[in-house]
Amino acid sequence: MCYIVFIKNILHLDDILPLILELKKAGMVSQPLFITHNREIYEYLRKNIVLYEGIISIDGRLSCLSRYKNRYINQIYNIIVLRKYLYKKVISIETSANGGSLLISLLVSYNRKVLKGKIIKSLIRNRPVEQGRNMVEYYRIAKGEPEKKESEKRVVKGCDYILLSHTKEQFERIFNQNLITDCPIINVGYTRGLPEWYRYLDKNESRYIPGEIKKPFLFFNLSRTGRWITGEDSPPLDQILKECLLVLKKFNDDIMTVFKPHSKTDMDKAIAIIESTGYSNYVFSYSHPWLMIKTRNLLFLIPYLQSQLMPIFWAVLQLNIHNMIQGFSNGIKAALCFLILLISSYIEIQNN
Predict the structure, then answer these.
(1) Would you list the domain boundaries of the chain?
(2) What is the C-alpha to C-alpha distance for residues 348 and 4, in angstroms, rounded to an integer?
(3) Rounded to whole angstroms, how far apart are CA atoms 35 and 33?
(4) Nearest to 220 by CA among 309, 298, 311
(5) How far apart are CA 75 and CA 339, in angstroms?
(6) Cα–Cα distance between 79 and 2 in angstroms, integer?
(7) Which CATH class for the 2-193 domain?
């Protein structure tokens, strides 16, 4: 069966790829095509070797629409990329809106009506209910939006199926919405815990941890510079990064730091901040966070990372430091004191 999956960002790919691996094992998927609308996201996904090679491992392909500056050339190019919609039954998985593309809408509609294709809307969210609800509220408060006393209507129609991680009631609680749909809902649960995904990661673990990374190491997920949300009442993230590094610098000679860039990380700024602190003994890696977290002798710091849920299933130590309170500088340093105690204890044990 031909699958075409539309991807908006790395989290969508991280959520849906484990499910596609399971379908491939069951013989239900053949040469899936993953498509991004954004060249920047496409290049970032290519760098994330674990996800990219996961696509390759199931005879899949990652492609990008609108590669060129000329819109007429782009239309021709996009039709070539999406040509299967014209002659083959396609199961389309939408992890986000189709980017407002009239061409995609027409092709998908044609395929569904004429060639009996299917449209699946993915609303997968791999996070616990309470965390999901808290994040929605955090974004609302940061943007200065008033609290909604009544649930909004979220209408999803014109699809054949909807994929949910939670029950419909839990989904509605997280987003404070009433999900209104005319199609069946399939509950897929926590996709990042599916067996085939774990087998793929375990099989390739040694390949995806660069040889230059020495254990023990500190795993540090970089965020964007500036503020994560416009209007957020907290110090900019570049300031937070610098404060963290100045505290951790004390242990820099003993423990290597592995920085994982985010798709929104301004690498020039990030490198400038790291160098301004005199930080050394570090590398950048685009390997999957799950492998970093699972590795033995691991100490890590994550300001914010969706994949922080993985340690729940592997009982790996984690510290989550993210915009704690007003007066953030003191809050960060207080939280880092705990991390410093852990690192100090670890070094002492290793030396003895």
Answers:
(1) 2-193, 210-351
(2) 52
(3) 6
(4) 298
(5) 52
(6) 17
(7) alpha beta
- Residue-by-residue DSSP string for 143-155: TTPPPPSSPEEEE
Nearest to 164 by CA among 341, 15, 291, 52: 15
Q: Which CATH class is domain 210-351?
A: alpha beta
2-193 against 210-351: fold identical? yes
Write down the residue that tokens 């955090």 correspond to. Answer: 138
Which residue in 324, 347, 306, 351 sits closest to 244, CA to CA? Answer: 324
In sequence order, what are the residues at sequence separation of 6 or more whose Cβ sits closer than 8 angstroms to the Cβ of residue 92?
A: 3, 4, 5, 6, 108, 111, 117, 118, 119, 120
User: What pLDDT is stored for residue 134 in this prediction?
Assistant: 85
**Conformational region of residue 56, where left means phi above 0, alpha means psi within -120 to 50, and beta covers everything else:** alpha
Q: Which two tokens stand for residue 219?
A: 């795993």
Closest CA to 287 of 213, 194, 192, 193: 213
Whole-prediction pTM: 0.80
Tens of pLDDT, residues 128-183: 888 888 888 877 887 778 888 788 899 999 899 999 999 999 999 999 999 999 99
